[in-house]
Amino acid sequence: MNDYDKITAFLGQWGRFQQIVFFLLCASSVPNGFAAFSFVFLTDIPSHHCLVPEVNLTQDWRNAIIPIEVVHGKQRLKRCSRYRLDVVRNLSAQGLFPDRDVNLTDLEQESCVNGWSYSRDIYQSTIVSEVSVYMMMMMHFI
Questions:
Q1: Do residues 21 and 73 share a domain?
Q2: What are the pLDDT digits (tens) for 68-108?
Q3: Shared-domain flag, residues 13 and 72
């Protein structure tokens, strides 16, 4: 330990200034730690599925337009696809019912061209849901 004391002797003694700087640095690390920890909650991806725009669809077709998939033994709405909106709109206009008149597995699917609808069961907003809304707004102006 004598070598360390000799090497750092030019710094001076552990005085009032060093104590103030030390405690200020310690106090500033607490908010930084909370900020870093907040990303655990802010970056979570909430449950979501394709957004269905306000078009003339019967309630049966509005409920059936998002395909259902089984994940880990549980059924949930598919996150990244839906049945083609133009096809579903025509079937709805003809008065046909899903699963009774039309086999849903035969319908073509499309990606989420209108964006996503995010669940607000756990979070009111996250980085993912806010950036998605922002990106969809920007696409309408382009």
A1: no
A2: 889 899 988 898 899 999 899 989 888 889 988 888 888 89
A3: no
**One domain for residues 38 and 53:** no
Same domain, 110 and 136: yes
Alpha helices in the chain (DSSP H): 2-7, 16-42, 59-64, 85-93, 127-141
Number of domains forming the structure of the chain: 2
Report whether pLDDT(17) > 70: yes
The secondary structure element, H or E, covering residue 118 is strand 116-118
Q: CA 93, 95, 96: angle at the middle one, nearest 5?
A: 110
The range of the structural domain enclosing residue 19 comes to 2-42
**Residue type (1 letter), 88:** V
Q: Write the DSSP symbol of residue 102.
A: B
Structure tokens given for 116 = 């996503």
In angstroms, rounded to a whole number, what is the distance separating the alpha carbons of residues 83 and 108? 6
Residues 60 and 87 in one domain: yes
- 127 in Cβ contact with 43 (< 8 Å): yes
In the predicted structure, residue 132 carries a pLDDT above the cut 80? no
